[in-house]
Structures are given as C-alpha cells and as structure tokens.
Amino acid sequence: MSTASPVPVARPRTPLALYALTIGAFGIGTTEFVIMGLLMQVAADLQVTIAAAGLLISGYALGVFVGAPLLTAATSRMPRKAALVALMVVFTLGNLACALAPDYTWLMVARVVTSLAHGTFFGVGAVVATGLVAEDRKASAISIMFTGLTVATLLGVPAGAWLGLHFGWRSTFWAVVAIGVLATAVIAALVPRDRAGQPPISMREEVKVLVRVQVLLGLLATVVGYAGVFAVFTYIQPILTRITGFADSAVSPILLVFGVGMIAGNLIGGKLADRRLVPTLLGSLAVLALVLGLMTFALHSKPAAVLFTGLLGAAAFATVAPLQLRVLRKAEGGGQSLASSFNIAAFNLGNAIGAWLGGAVIDHGPGLAAVTWVAALVTVLGLAIAAWSVRLDRHPRVSRRPVHGTVAIVLLAGAAFATTPAQANEAPDRPAWTATWTASPQPLWEGDFALPVNVPGSLWNQTVRQVARVSVGGDRVRVRLSNEYGTTPLHVGAARIALAGDGVATVPGSSRALTFGGKASITIPPGAPAVSDPVALDVAALASLSVSLYLPRPTAVSTFHWDARQTAYVMAGDQVAADAPVPDSTLSARVFLTSILVERAAPTRTVVALGDSITDGATATMDADTRWPDFLAERLVDDDIAVLNAGISGGRLLRDKMGSNALARFERDVLAQPGIAAVIVLIGINDISWNAMVFAPHDDPVAATEVIAGYRQLIARAKLHGVRIVGATLLPFGGALQDTPMAGYFSAEKEQVRQAVNRWIRDSGEFDAVVDFDAVMRDPARPSRLLPAYDSGDHLHPGDAGNQAMAEAIDIDALLGSH
Question: Which residues are paired to 535 by β-bridges?
Fold first, then answer.
C-alpha cells in the first residue's frame, strides 16, 4: 500500500510593491534624522546659532503632526496609489528646496514642506501595505514598510552625515532627492492601482471613524506607550557617558547596536502580530516597560548597558506594527487612511513628549539617573490604556461608538501643540543666569606660614575697586559677595558696577548702583554669601568690569583671594560712583568679591578650571588676563561657553592651608555653578611637593594612591551631578623654586609620585577625558622639566606663552563630549 506524500504549501511571496514602500520610508527616515548630524555645518554656513539650527528638527516634527491630517484630507478622494506618488513628489521637491536653500528661513520652510508628506505617506502606505497581503500577513507587511525607517536610522543617517561632513551639508539633501526620485518611480511602477469599482471614502466617513472610542484609545496608547522610548533615547549620549562611563567615541558604535535591535524588533513584532495581535500588542508594551525599568540597573555595567541598548531598540520597534495594525483594525468598515495617518502623527507626538519629559526629569526632577525608570512608568501607563481598549472589545457597541462631535480631535491637537515644540523648547527660550567670572574665596592663614597674606588687617571708611574680565556677556548683571570665612558681620555701605576703563577708571555713563533686596547697603552674616539684585548693563563677551565696594565700618579682611593677578585700588571715603578716582594704595588680592553673573537669553554651558597656582596664573603678566583659563575663554567665546577659574595659589587636593582643599570646595566652586557642563581638574602637585620643605615641614609624604583616591572622589561626585570631568596630567617641575627659600619643593622621590599619578590619569579611563599637559609642557631633552620657552623662570609655573600652549592643547570636543 502506497502512502501519498503531502503536497508542500508554497509560502506566499512578498509583493515587490512592499519594497517600493520600503524605499520611500528609507528616504523619509533619512531626511528626518540626518539633520542631527549636520547642525554645526548648517549653523556655520547659514550664520545662525546651533540652537537655531536645532529648531529645524522641531519644525520638521511639527510639520509631521500638522501635515498628516491636512494632506490626508487633501488626498482623501484620490486613488491611494496616486496619493503615494503625489506625496513622494512633495517629499522630493521639499528636499530639492533644502539643497538649494539660500538662507535659514528658506531652509526652515523647505523642511516643513518636506515633513508634510511624512505622516500621510506612512499612514496611507500602511493601508496600502495591508491591502497587498493576506489577512495573516498584514502586520508583517507594515513591519516591512517600516524596515525602511529602521535601516535609514542604522545606515542612511550615518551615511548622510558622512556625506555632509566631507562634501557639504547640501550634498546630503541632493542624495535624498535622488532617493526620492527612485522611490517615486518604483511606487509608480510596482504599487497596484486601487481595485476597480472601489468608491473613494469621503472625509466625513474618515472623521467618523477617527472619533470612535477604540480608535482614539489606540492613538492614545501609541502616544503614551511610545513616549517612554524617546524619554531615554533623546538623552542616550549623556546616559551612556555620565552614568555608565563610556567614552564619547564609544557612543556611535553602541547606537549601531540600537539600530540592529530596531530592525530585528520591527520584523519580529510584525511576525508575532500576524499570529496573535492582542497578545503581541500587550506583550510588546510590557517587554518595553520591563527593558526600560531594568536599564536603570544595567547602566552601571558596560556590557549590560550595551545589551540593553540593543534590547531597547528591539522592544521599541516591536510595538510599531501591532500599534499601527490595532488602529487599522478598529477603523475597519470606514475610512482607514486618516486614522492610520493620525497614528503616525501619534508616534511623533510621543517622541516629542518623551524628549520633553526626559529633559524635565533631568533639569527639574531626580536627575539623569532617573530617566529610565520614569520612562518605564510612562510605558506602563500606555500598556494600561491598551489593556483598557482590549477590555472594551467585549462590548462591540461601545467600541464603535464615536466620542461626541470632534471634541476628541480638538483635544488631541491641542495636546500636541501644547507639548511640541513650544513647550519642549520653553526652557532654552527662558532667560537664565550664568556665572561669567569667579575667584575662589580663601580664609586668611596664620602669620607663621612662609607667605604673607598681602592684604591690610582692616579697611575702614574706604572704597575698594576690583577689575575682572568676564567670559560670556549678557544684558543684566549681578555680583556675589562673600563673608564665608568671617567671624563678624560684613557691612557694605554701597556698591556699584561699571565697564572698566584704564587702570582705576571706569567708562563714563556705565556705572550702575548695586542693591541687595532693594537696599543700597547690606550686612552679610558670618559664614554667608550675598547676591546683589539684577541691574541692566550691556556686557560684551570678554569685557572687563569694575566692581566698587564701600566699607564704612572697620572691616577685617577675612575672606579674600590671595593671588588676583589683577590690581585692585583702595580709595578714602565713598568713591564707588567716581569715574576716575585717585587711589591711595593698591592690592594684588581680591577682597569679598567672588563671582559676577550675567543674564542671557538662553542657558549657557559652563566649564570650570579647578586647580592651584598654575591655574590661578601665579606668574602670568599682571593685569593682562594671560592665565590658561583666560586663553581657553577666548577659544570658546564664539560658542557662548562660560569659562570659570577656580584655581587657588597654594591649593591642594587633600589638605587645607592656602584655602580649603579641593574635595571640600568642589561643591561650591564647581558643582553649584549654573549650567555647569564640564570641569578640568589640574591639582595635586602641592600635595606631592609641600612635605619636607618650608610650606609643610612636618607633613608626611603623600603617596600616589592618596592622590588617586582624591581624584576618584571628585569623579564620583561629578558623575552624580551629570557633570563631565576631565583629568589633566601634572606639569613637570624639575628644579622648581630651587634658588629660593622654598628649596626642596622638587626631589627625585616626589617626581616618581608625579609620574605614577600621571600614568593613572592617562591610562585608567576613569576621567571622562584627559588633557595631557605634561606631554605639551615638558622639555624633550629633560622630561622632568618645563620646556624653556614655556617656563616662567621658577621651573614650576608656565609663563604667558606656556599658559597659551596649555589652553590650545585642550580638545574642545573631548572637553564637552561632542564627539
């Protein structure tokens, strides 16, 4: 008896038309995100700020949300194939306009025009894709179309950014134009026409479907469920660098892992949704929430962080096909195009809300480390909405019931415009205060120390005028005074600020009275600082300001900055308002003045230089602003980045004397600065060298391990605050101070400790970045000594040329994490 062999069932082939839609999705995905990698080139070419260039992203996102319903309505009576071709023509012409844009306004308009086709293409494309395949392959068809978007993120965007970097940003848009032409051609050739006799759906029918309870719940599940993804992904670079500790150069390869996860998750989600839509919908959202929650812990391990970055990509895009198909299923029996397009807009709305939420958590909530678990909670809310929708499936009459009128649409649109991009960009448009100059306060030391304090024991009925060069400018100004080391109240009878002229003089007409709580005078309690009220004064970047304080009562100089490298002037009586007073004496120190702040139209990133006398500028030319942080400020002035000098001559990392140790003052001098983005740490040479010489004859020698332990504390505290910390190698000091009463500062044993510390700074990888001042400043013939051209003469401190070389040696991208 013979047995018949089973007849194999041929697996249906994927229609070529689906791949035509994929090409269109690839072009759209590339043009949407590639601008992120071209911001600096666009800003430089069109002579706008980077922040203004960033608005090209916001404008595109807003255009997607607005364009989806508008173009869907405009094309509602067109055959769907014709609509897709028309949308790709709009997309191609929009990118052509971007490539030819003569100025920023033209480029913004072109970007918005391009974006109008985005939402409608994916919305109509999803309907067409599901119509090309059998019922059990509809979710896979959607995922195949969206593969174009995921591949664009993985390959198209990096390729476009590379093209723009090497051949100009316009070349990228020309390449996208070519993709658009290709997509238009293959869609016209391969996508079948609508079935004969199929009547067009009226806009009224489309709207009736859109306001069904289940359709709106599907849209809401998409918005909320997907918001958690971009709450994390928008800030993935600082998360990976500041929490996990990756170098900036590692972020791009890790994002490739995310991209691979996106492609895999997108296809897997489509396959599973074809088998069982509802379990896949709920399961994918649950997995996404779980991945986001577990990332909170995984980010503290580098291998786990890489793994979970890939899992986030997979989990995020596994939700796309089921969310889209769920909306299409609930729109059956009527017009699906508008509902489908609105769901594409819902994804973008979720992206914008997520980005805003992540920023709010960082700036106004528990901080960067909390973003992942907050995102997980948001996704859980999206899961709850989806579960509620599934529960309503048991009540078909309720499921298809419309929400009254078009209130639902108004509410959805209102929520979108309230959240994107105006609210997302609200913080950058709000004026903000930033420190533009600082001098770290010090207490007086006892008379048995080797160096004099160089200030009078008291000031009485005298005016002290102090000059400071700022880093960034602003429209309003205020000052910070300090009585932090005083034991009695500090009474300031009057204070003024003005643009500095030559020497003691101020620019006529620029003087402004400073008030404190509306009063002309202030009494500052012992141990406290005081900040003046804002006053209008147009301060340019790198301008010099003059701050005058009148001290009417006998005042002990208890809080000062020993080495100002700037002349201060002392006059009898109240001369704060005098443009050109005649000084009775001068000081080389600063008294009571610790900070100048300016108000700017937008928050400013701040870099702090934390160090000792090398940073303080001990041998820089007086009144010339030639410390190395001064030269760094000049390099960063065009980027609107504030540079603050937190150097203290004689300062040490671990011990007090000429000021508090760096561990003790790190919070005040660094972490408390508004807008702090990065700190450069160059301190430790005094810890190594002060023992066995006149400065600290009874101190025990400090081992390299002790210095390294101190650095690790600074690193840990910086990372807790999301601040980038850059380690600087200690400069050569062979022969330092050898012909002075401070002989003994250098020895072979101390040099060994310096070398050990520098090896750790270079090789440990614990700092976010390293600037190798030792390599820049050493004499190749005698590596333990400064290069003669950079030596001030004492073999410890650089001269002006050395200070400039130090500032030039700093890699700005490494400093700010911009790689």
Answer: 477
The span from the CA of 607 to the CA of 629, in Å, is: 10
Cβ neighbours around 513 below 10 Å, total: 14
Question: Is the CB of residue 733 less than 8 Å from the CB of residue 683?
Answer: no
Burial-class residue 629 by CB neighbours within 10 Å (0-12, 13-18, 19+): buried
pLDDT of residue 550 exceeding 90, the answer is yes
Dihedral, CA of residue 723, residue 729, residue 735 and residue 736, to nearest 10:
0
Helix ranges (DSSP H) in 764-799:
773-777
Query: Which one has a higher pLDDT value, 68 or 774?
Result: 774
Q: How many whole angstroms separate alpha carbon 484 and alpha carbon 498?
A: 25
User: pTM score, two decimals?
Assistant: 0.54
Q: In 3-state terms, what secondary structure has residue 752?
A: helix
Token pair 């059998």 is at which residue?
134
The full DSSP string for 673-739 is: STTEEEEEEE--HHHHHSBTSTTBTTPPPPPHHHHHHHHHHHHHHHHHTT-EEEEEPPPP-TTTTTT
Quote the tokens at residue 654. 């671990």
The candidate with the shortest Cα–Cα distance to 771, out of 682, 645, 688, is 682
Average pLDDT for the chain:
86
Q: Alpha-carbon distance 549 to 819, whole Å?
A: 45
Handedness of CA 658, 662, 667, 673 (dihedral sign): positive
Record the tokens describing residue 174, joined without a space.
């020309």
Cα gap 186→74, rounded to integer Å: 23
Measured torsion, CA atoms of residues 71, 74, 79, 85, in degrees rounded to the nearest 10: -40
Interval 311-325 mean pLDDT: 86
Q: How far is the C-alpha of 575 from the C-alpha of 561, rounded, in Å?
A: 23
The neighbouring-strand residues paired with 724 are 678
- Per DSSP bridges, beta strands 769-771 and 676-682 are unpaired
- What residues pair up with 147 in beta bridges, in sequence order? none
Res 61 pLDDT > 80: no
- How many other CB atoms are found less than 10 A from the CB of residue 259? 20
DSSP 3-state assignment of 590? Answer: strand
Q: CA 174 → CA 163, 168, 169, 180, 729, distances in Å?
A: 10, 11, 9, 10, 46
Written as one string, the DSSP assignment of 1-68 is ---PPPPPPPPPPPPHHHHHHHHHHHHHHHHHHGGGGSHHHHHHHHT--HHHHHHHHHHHHHHHHHHH
